[in-house]
Amino acid sequence: MSKVKKQFAVIGLGRFGGSVCKELFKMGHEVLAVDKDEDKVNEYAKFATHAVQLDSTDEKSLISMGIRNFEHVVVAIGDNIQASILTTLVLKEIGVKTVWVKAQNAYHQKVLDKIGADLVVHPEFDMGKRIAHNMSSEKIIDFIDLADDYSIVELLATSKVHNMTLIELDVRANYGVTILAFKSGKEMNIAPDPDDKIREGDILIVMGHTNDLDRFEDEGL
Ligand code: ADP
Question: Residue 179: CB within 6 Å of ligand 1?
């Protein structure tokens, strides 16, 4: 957990925004929770530093509430795509540095990318992909999509690589992937040495092109 206390604003307190808000607050950050629905605002008053009722498509209200002071804003308006787009546009126009937005579908995602959202998340889609990867192989423990065809995966070291050093494995030359770190029992080795040995049951954190990662998982482990 980060020790630096940061200021965040979460606009839209549905299932997604609500969960982001509660988690940030639990981590000790300063969180402004915003929703146009008064009941939601009351519900989240105890899970945020401040909870404010306003319609985020109204630029004047956003400005007078001091949204400019927040470096990082999450727009979690789900169903109302128009409100989500307009809010994002206003936030970027008034100079909020980082705006992350939840997209409802691929078209929504495309528009948000175009108008300058700094990160677009599509939770159902992203999670579905992640679960599918986790289900497809017993060696895959977790999966994070980076950009287009690149990802980071957690792979289980099998008996095939037991007692091999990273040099012996030479995954970069053989598969074009990089072992960023590995977990051996409870210990996390975040700066692996070429001579470090992998043991069966270790968890390898590997980054690379999806095709190369697939090949390493199939042939290398
Ligand atoms: P989820 O799918 O994550 O549950 P919802 O679409 O159900 O998302 O919830 C989105 C939240 O955003 C609702 O609480 C809704 O009141 C709020 N919301 C929608 N439009 C606006 C707006 N213009 N300004 C502020 N909050 C909004």
Answer: no
pTM above 0.80, yes or no: no
Nearest CA to ligand 1 atom 16: 37
Domain limits of the chain?
Answer: 7-121, 126-220
Q: Which atom of ligand 1 is nearest to the CA of 123?
A: 3
Determine if ligand 1 sits within 6 Å of the CB of residue 12. Answer: yes
pLDDT tens-digit readout, 70-87: 989 999 998 899 999 999
Place of tokens 């957990």: 1
Question: What residue owns the CA closest to ligand 1's atom 26?
Answer: 35
Q: Tell me which CATH code domain 126-220 carries.
A: 3.30.70.1450
CA atoms of 74 and 25, how far apart (whole Å): 14
Q: Is 147 exposed, middle or buried (0-12, 13-18, 19+ CB in 10 A)?
A: exposed
* Ligand 1 contact via 123 beta carbon (within 6 Å): no
CATH topology (fold) of 7-121 = Rossmann fold (3.40.50)
